[in-house]
């Protein structure tokens, strides 16, 4: 669509701008302020320059949390994306099954995040939980509060439970937008199931898959509540992700300076990903338009 | 690009093939393929429902039964756990608090996002792309980064422990999301409609309210749904900004440890009750939910 140049449109954006300035810019300025200062209490602050950043970037604690978080994000992506595509492909296209599937699948997305944690905390317990009881009666020693491997497995399965539906719904939205004529043509050409997937369905899901990958990546990079409720970041530090570490530092130990420095670095990492997300999505949009123009 | 050529080839196939008769064997093969395909969603939904069922199962048991024996369904179903929640004000006020700030947030977010989304979808203006990107970064901001500064900011305004504080704080991620979704839906409405309305003598507010809003009604519904959803599930910020008077239900749940140990039954019942509002709103937007998750861009 051709857009008219009109700088008065700024007035329409103004309410959003003021609101977001209040909820985002002012708090962010506070963080920046703390990141360069130190305090001995009594509201006395003095300038320390980039000391906190040097300390942070050299600290093993930050490296470990970052690495853990990256491993976690890539693991859940590797599971959720193929699984989500597979399920979306098998979903019914019409009939009573569609609303049933959509409503039931979307349900985990609307469970408050700490309740997701509670559900899995209960479900995985060896004494009162179905999963824990079942695994232990099979002879597998499963205890997520003591065994780091079990804790990781629980957190990952929980995230798959919680968010795979997002991928499914996105892929499904992409799939139902494919006109029936494409499938008819493929049948006439004698295309195999794989060819249909590779040359019709996958290209059509391209843009929604991008949204899915990047949303999942970023949200898993900020995960806090669910693992905090289930494992509390433990056993030891084995499931302490960036957000958990940050809250521990800021609210638990009240180390404002280092916590603020970490917030900024954390935010910059996310900002970088957002930028990649935005660029990639915009390019995908232009490609689509060019293609539509050719037709 | 190889994908483009692939689809283009198929387009040619449509043109050339037309209504040619189908190969019978292939049609049969496809049917047997789809006969078992219902198994995959069924298994997946079972996997989704099991933990929820387990919580539901627990909510109908007494604490004694939960701890003493392992049963797949309650021996003597009891609603006692739910009665605790409905009769104790410290429990049910949690629900009222949550619903109050979620509703406030949804109204604020959609109201400010509507004109902004219209501006982004219709006009080019100085810095529009940068502004749009900046809004997106706020959706991506980790709540953990904002927890502490929010506490200090709202303390300074004396807003701690009020519903409006949580509603405003949740605008951090909901306003950008609402702008995004609405912009996606609005771009789907042809611009000729706006122009025709102006020629017919409609003023802008009248056009917006009487013609444009009904056209994107589903988009507004989806945006409201997503604002509801993300405000409802968020806890870190909501808990940081409240102490008692506006405490969300999800935070109330963390205090079920009593002198006699964990009160599992009540915890489970409270959990089940937090799932119900979500299930209700999903039902209303079920036909648009997929498009909404794609930010209106399918």
Automatic annotation (TrEMBL), chain A:
Main location: membrane
Keywords annotated in UniProt: Membrane, Transmembrane, Transmembrane helix, Transport
Classification via CDD domains: TM_PBP2
Family membership: Belongs to the binding-protein-dependent transport system permease family.
Pfam families, sorted: BPD_transp_1
UniProt protein name: Carbohydrate ABC transporter membrane protein 1, CUT1 family
Location(s) in or outside the cell: Cell membrane
Membrane-spanning residues: 12-36, 70-90, 102-123, 160-183, 204-224, 259-280
Organism: Pseudovibrio denitrificans
Keyword Transmembrane tagged: yes
Topological relation to the membrane, as annotated: Multi-pass membrane protein
Any single Gene Ontology cellular-component annotation: plasma membrane
Domain annotation ABC transmembrane type-1: ranges: 66-277
InterPro entries: MetI-like (IPR000515), MetI-like_sf (IPR035906), Sugar_ABC_transporter (IPR052730)
A biological process term (GO) from this entry: transmembrane transport
TrEMBL record, chain B:
Transport found in the keyword field: yes
Listed GO CC annotations: plasma membrane
Name of the protein this chain belongs to: Carbohydrate ABC transporter membrane protein 2, CUT1 family
Pfam families: BPD_transp_1
GO BP terms: transmembrane transport
UniProt similarity note: Belongs to the binding-protein-dependent transport system permease family.
Subcellular location, record wording: Cell membrane
Gene3D superfamilies: MetI-like
Topology term for the membrane: Multi-pass membrane protein
Sequence ranges assigned to domain ABC transmembrane type-1 in this UniProt record: 95-285
Membrane-spanning intervals of the chain: 36-56, 99-120, 132-151, 163-182, 211-233, 264-285
Record keywords: Cell membrane, Membrane, Transmembrane, Transmembrane helix, Transport
UniProt-listed InterPro entries: BP-dep_ABC_trans_perm, MetI-like, MetI-like_sf
Species the sequence originates in: Pseudovibrio denitrificans
Taxonomic lineage of the native organism: Bacteria, Pseudomonadati, Pseudomonadota, Alphaproteobacteria, Hyphomicrobiales
